[in-house]
Structure formats: structure tokens, C-alpha cells
Specification:
- With about 500 residues, the chain is mainly beta.
- About 5% of the residues lie in helices and about 50% in strands.
- An 8-stranded mixed β-sheet has the order 9-10-11-12-16-15-14-13, with no helix packed on it.
- A hairpin with a 2-residue loop joins β5 and β6.
- The longest helix has 10 residues.
- The radius of gyration is 22 Å and the shape is globular.
């Protein structure tokens, strides 16, 4: 089984299929994407010895995500030049036959330690919510991001609280003093979302310490939890499901941010919950602290509910990442800003002014545009998107380029600065120094779409953006022993009662 699945992964990533993807006009210039097929959640983000490691959920056989789901891997030292690495993790054992699901990384004692969820649906008459699903927490290591150890089982179904469903996943691990902590997203049998907090002295013996909940139930499942401390506050980014009414959005699942009151004190409570990003294409982000102490976030510019809204399916690929974002705390809340390294891709800076109702041609889609806008109401068109701020409500209408996405709006207050990160088929909007963000895909392929207009006089600065440099693993030196994938744990995969 092992060799067959890895062989399928490799065959699906042939040079011919890669070239087909690159010919698509919607393929991003400076956003990272999978070389073929489907990509989603960023996993295992970390930096070791100056190298940033970016792992992610990957299904190269099928752009709709229906094939084998494993982990792919990029590295970069500068966020401009990337190396595609070999796939470290494929679903080649019984426990993760349904997918090697999301997880995280921790650099500890000069070793990168990886944690993920092994998923498998068992045969039989099951609902796969409360029965019939393997959802084990797994761990493997690497000294260098190229040689990986065998996988070890940390937690099995029977190790989770008895009131939980079979949906427990997405471990995020960190270390405080001499104790390791791990959060896991969970769904109870009563269809309420929560996050489990485990603690361990040695990464082997894990004990449930606390359960993070909200005062009022919020959705039926919390996935992709990310807990970190900034400026003396404990924050949690997570993705609750079943919250369309709570956030007055058209999507059932969202990406949210909140503060944790009373972490490590017995009854932690999630408070001050708001959306982390207000667009239709931002989900399952992950953050990490780099070696200089910066917290960097990368998000999946996709969504579980927009999988059929991307015409790129016809060209053998789907989804991309956001640009890397720098997280900070300003005025008591998290802000997201464009990572400074993105400036290395910018060229041909142009300062401009527009009179009211004046239009200006855009030279290309791959741009960053920084606008100063009037206080109060304004309406802007950029490419085919109509962007407006009216009575303190920010809205985006993609018109003909929406591919099924509807007009969205949210309370923003006055927006006097707007940074537009524009690529071949995406927009990321940063409002008021990143106080709020809006991420979306869009599909406009006509030259006449490349304009910017506003109903008020505005001024700003625009940069063209170079493409990131991505070196394929097909071109790497592949001498024997250079790459060792994560192996199977001995004697763990075939035992009976895997769902117990």
C-alpha cells in the first residue's frame, strides 16, 4: 500500500501536468500554490536555521480534492525564492487511509517535531460523526526537513473525552518553560464546538488539562485552533462551523479570532470573538513565531464552501495561499499587515492622483496599490470589483468576476487607507493599517477590466509585482538517501478496534 500511494502522488505531479497549470491565466504570480491538483490548509509552519518550512494539505491527483490527501512541502529563506521539496507524508497506512490531515510543527532541541491527525472511515453502518471514524493524533520528527522519522501515535479515539464525537483534529503544539501544550479542535456529541488543551512533560504522555469553550455556544465544530500569546494576552484563531447566523454571513464556516480568559487556570473562556478575515476565500490559517520573534500568518485562500466556484478546476488546479502576513497588536486587537519581505517583489513605483470620477488604467493584475481615501462615504472600482464604504459599512461586489460569490458587507467605520494586494485571480484588502482584511478570488480576464476609478478625489501609490521564484523538486539532485519520508509506526496500523 505504501509504495502504491507514493507512486500515485509522484505520477500526478508530472512535468506535463505542471506546465498545463502554469498556462492558466488565473495562475498566481506572487502567491504560493500547489504545482498541480488541490491544496488547502497550511500545516507545520516553522523556521529552523534561517529556513522557513511551509507544509500544506495536498491532493495532486484531483483538483477537486477527492484524491489521496497528504502533506506537500516548500522552503524559503526570504519569502521570494522557494524550493519545492519532496512530499514528506502520504496516507499510506490504515489509520490515515482517509487522509493525513492538518497539523503543526514545533522546533525543539534542534529537531522539528510534527503533529497531525490521521483520518480513516471504517467500513460498516456508521454516521462518521459519532461512530466509524479513526481520528488519531500522530507525531514524527525531522532534523532538517528532508529526513523524517517513523510516525508515532500520541492519542487514539479512546483517549479523548467520552462526550466527544469522532471529529477531533488539527493539533497545534507549543512549549512554555518545561511543559508542552497541544490544542485540538473538537465537536461534542451535542453538536457544540470546543477546543481541548493537553499538556505533557515529554511529548509522549499527554493529559487533558482544560477545555476552552465560549459563554454562548458557537457552532457545532471548532477546527484548526491556533493559540499564542502576544502583548500579555492569550489569543486563539480558529474556524467554527455552523455559524452562519452568528456572524450574519452567507457561509456556514468562518475563520475567527478571540481572546482566552483564564488559560491554565481551570476554566478558560473564549471572549471578544470576531472574524479574522471578512472575505469569502480565507480559511484554516496558521501562524508561527520566526527566529527573530515575529509572528507570521499564512492562510488558505479557499473555503470548504467555494470548492465549485473556481474555474481553475478545468486546468487541473485549485486554490492558493494568502500572502504571508505579519501579526501585531494595536489598540487591543490583532492587526494583519503585509510582510515587509514582499517589498522585494515590488518594482516600478508610481505615485498618482485621481479626481472625482476619474479612471486610470492598471498596467497588470499583479500589483499592490496603497490608497488614501476620504473620511466618510466613497465608492471605488478596481478591476471588476466594486468596493465601497457607506455609512461605516464596507462592501465588496465582484460583479461578473465573482464566479458565484455574492456581495458582502460588514461594519468597518471610516476607511481612510486601503491596501489592495492584487494577483492574477485574487484580491486581499487591508483596511486601516490591517485592522480588518478581506480576501477573495475573482476571475476577470479582459484587458478592459484593468482600471481603477473613484467617485471622490484620491491619491495613492502603486507597484507592479514580480513573480515569486519557485524551483521544482523535479530539478533537484535526487541522490540516494537525500530524502527519507515519514515512515509507518510499527504494529499500530492493523490492530483491531481502531475506532475505540
Amino acid at each position: 500500500m505504501t509504495g502504491d500511494i507514493r507512486k500515485e502522488f509522484t505520477q500526478a505531479q508530472s512535468a506535463g501536468k505542471r506546465e498545463q497549470v502554469l498556462k492558466d491565466p488565473a495562475h498566481p504570480q506572487y502567491h504560493l500554490t500547489g504545482v498541480v491538483g488541490w491544496m488547502n490548509d497550511p500545516n507545520g509552519l516553522c523556521q529552523k536555521d534561517g529556513t522557513n518550512h511551509i507544509f500544506y494539505q495536498y491532493s495532486p491527483q484531483s483538483p477537486d480534492g477527492s484524491g489521496w490527501r497528504g502533506w506537500a512541502h516548500y522552503t524559503t529563506r526570504d519569502w521570494v525564492h522557494y524550493q519545492e521539496e519532496d512530499d514528506p507524508l502520504v496516507p499510506d497506512g490504515l489509520a490515515d487511509q482517509g487522509g493525513s490531515y492538518s497539523g503543526s510543527a514545533l522546533v525543539d532541541q534542534d529537531v522539528i517535531r510534527f503533529f497531525y491527525t490521521a483520518n480513516r472511515k471504517l467500513p460498516g453502518n456508521h454516521d462518521y460523526i459519532c461512530s466509524g471514524r479513526v481520528h488519531w493524533t500522530m507525531e514524527f520528527d525531522s532534523p532538517d526537513g528532508e529526513h523524517f522519522t517513523g510516525r508515532q501515535v500520541l492519542l487514539k479515539n479512546r483517549d479523548y473525552p467520552a462526550d466527544l464525537s469522532c471529529h477531533v483534529r488539527d493539533p497545534k503544539v507549543w512549549k512554555e518553560n518545561d511543559t508542552y501544550y497541544m490544542v485540538l479542535g473538537a465537536r461534542t456529541r451535542r453538536d457544540q464546538g470546543e477546543v481541548l488543551l493537553y499538556a505533557s512533560p515529554d511529548l509522549k504522555d499527554w493529559k487533558l488539562q482544560e477545555i476552552i469553550t465560549s459563554q454562548k455556544p458557537l457552532g457545532y465544530m471548532w477546527e484548526c485552533p491556533d493559540v499564542f500569546e502576544m502583548n500579555g494576552t492569550d489569543w486563539m484563531i480558529f474556524c467554527p462551523q455552523g455559524v452562519k447566523a452568528d456572524f450574519e454571513t452567507d457561509q456556514d464556516s468562518v475563520c475567527a479570532l478571540g481572546t482566552i480568559k483564564g488559560l491554565h487556570k481551570g476554566q478558560p473562556l473564549l471572549e471578544n470573538v470576531r472574524l479574522l478575515d471578512y472575505g469569502p476565500d480565507f480559511y484554516a490559517p496558521q501562524s508561527f513565531e520566526d527566529e527573530s520573534g515575529r509572528r507570521i500568518l499564512l492562510g488558505w485562500m479557499g473555503h470548504p464552501e467555494t470548492g465549485e466556484m473556481n474555474p481553475t478546476l478545468e486546468n487541473g488546479w485549485q486554490h492558493q495561499f494568502s500572502i504571508p502576513r505579519l501579526l501585531s497588536v494595536n489598540n487591543g486587537t490583532i492587526t494583519q499587515q503585509i510582510l515587509p519581505e514582499m517589498k522585494e517583489l515590488a518594482y516600478d513605483e508610481t505615485r498618482f492622483q485621481l479626481d472625482a470620477d476619474q479612471c486610470r488604467d492598471l498596467p497588470q493584475r499583479a500589483m499592490i496599490v496603497d490608497l488614501n481615501l476620504p473620511k466618510g462615504d466613497w465608492k471605488l472600482s478596481f478591476r471588476q470589483a466594486e468596493i465601497a464604504c457607506q455609512d461605516g459599512v464596507f462592501s465588496v461586489d465582484l460583479k461578473e468576476s465573482a464566479a458565484g460569490r455574492i456581495k458582502r458587507s460588514f461594519q468597518s467605520g471610516n476607511v481612510t487607507r486601503l491596501q489592495i494586494v492584487s494577483d492574477s485571480s485574487s484580491l486581499e484588502l487591508f483596511l486601516n493599517e490591517g485592522e480588518k482584511t478581506y480576501s477573495t478570488r475573482l476571475y476577470d480576464q479582459k484587458q478592459e477590466d484593468l482600471t481603477i476609478c473613484c467617485d471622490h478625489a484620491i491619491h495613492g501609490t502603486a507597484w507592479k509585482m514580480h513573480s515569486i521564484d519557485v524551483a521544482w523538486k523535479l530539478d533537484k539532485n535526487t541522490e540516494e538517501g537525500r530524502f527519507v519520508p515519514a515512515g509507518l509506526p510499527e504494529g499500530e496500523w492493523d490492530e483491531p478496534g481502531m475506532d475505540e
